[in-house]
Amino acid sequence: MAVVDRDGAIDGDARWDFFVSYTQADRSWAEWISWKLEEDGYRVLVQAWDLVPGTNWVFGMQEGVTRSERTLAVLSTAYTKSVYGSAEWQAAWRADPTGARRKLLVARVEDCDRPGMLGQVVSFDLFGLAQDDARDELLKAAKLAVTGARAKPSTEPPFPPAATTTSPAPAPPGTGLRPEPAPRSAASHPAGPIQIGTVSAPGGTAIGVNHGRVIQRSDGERPSPRNDGQAG
Question: Which residues pair with 15 in a beta bridge?
Answer without folding.
Answer: none
